[in-house]
Design goal:
With 307 residues, this protein is an alpha/beta fold. It has one domain (6-301): Aldolase class I (TIM Barrel), CATH 3.20.20.70. The chain is 51% helix and 14% strand. The protein is built from 13 helices and 8 strands. It has helices at residues 6-16, 28-41, 51-57, 59-73, 87-95, 110-124, 147-153, 157-167, 193-202, 217-225, 238-245, 256-272, 279-301; strands at 20-24, 45-50, 77-84, 100-103, 130-135, 171-174, 207-209, 249-254. Strands 1-2-3-4-5-6-7-8 form an 8-stranded parallel barrel, surrounded by 10 helices. Helix 6 (110-124) packs parallel to helix 8 (157-167). It is globular and about 60 Å long. The chain binds glyceraldehyde-3-phosphate, 1,3-dihydroxyacetonephosphate and zinc ion (ZN). Glyceraldehyde-3-phosphate (G3H) binds next to helix 3 and strand 3.
Length: 307
Amino acid sequence: MALVNNNDLMVPARRDGYAVGGFNTSNLEITAAIFQAAAEKRSPVIVATSQSAIKYAGYDNIRAMVDNMSREADIPASLHLDHGTDMEIIKGCIEHGWTSLMIDGSHFPFDENIAATKAVVDLAHPHGISVEAELGRLEGVEDEISVDSKDASMTDPEEAAQFVERTGVDSLAVAIGTSHGAYKFKGEPRLDIERLEKIAALVSIPLVLHGASAVPPEVLELAQRYGADLPGAKGVPAESIRASLKHGVAKVNIDTDLRLAFTGHVRQILTESPKVFDPRKILAAARDGMAEVIKAKMDLFGSAGRV
Ligand code: G3H
Ligand code: 13P
Ligand code: ZN
């Protein structure tokens, strides 16, 4: 079906206590893996593109791929800009048919974040494009950081309520202890679910969990078995994701787990089949490996079977 915006996918998700995966893509195989999984699981899906992914693959190529695959799979999907910071790219996404935008003003002081977010809301809403913003910084929780500075980087519930009220934004990414990449925790993984609960009590729009990859042991182990050098990689446990779904999280962002699966499967086939040099054979293995990871996420997030 034709692309929808994130409100169409996330408002029912928050209401019914599940989340839609926001999966990052930058090429044909990742996009195909996302729709292969979505079609098999009958799950709605958010296809996310960072600014660097757009520079890498091009607006028109991405839009055409996502549009075509969502029609073929007959799955409700949105095309979303992840971590937009550059107004030229934000405007480019509006012109090229993106249905959802994230404005990431989380590095700004509170009032500047509000101003930047409101400016994007005013640009996007007349086109029916939904907007996600971020309040708080996704720095991860390092053991050596003091309690005060941990607290300062996380989302303040009262500020979150004010932020939503003053910006008119559609969804809000919160900082509760996750971070991007494969090294999220030095010690035990810890998310501040109590803080999330307080935010959810004050903010009724759907919430977003960034930096939510799990670094699944079997995915990491495959990559490492074939030579990847990723000591100490650690992600968000499934029980923390389940807890977040109970408190307003309606979009869960995954990039790192797909990168790890891609890397593991490419390394495996190149090592085990040294005579293979057809890119399609190499990349089909990576695509199918990523689709398995995505299907497991759709089950975990509760989005499977919602279409
Ligand atoms: O949150 C960031 C995503 O993982 C995308 O990263 O800018 O390397 O594409 P990227
Ligand atoms: P991960 O690095 O945990 O996959 O997070 C991705 C993300 O938040 C993209 O915005
Ligand atoms: Zn993110």
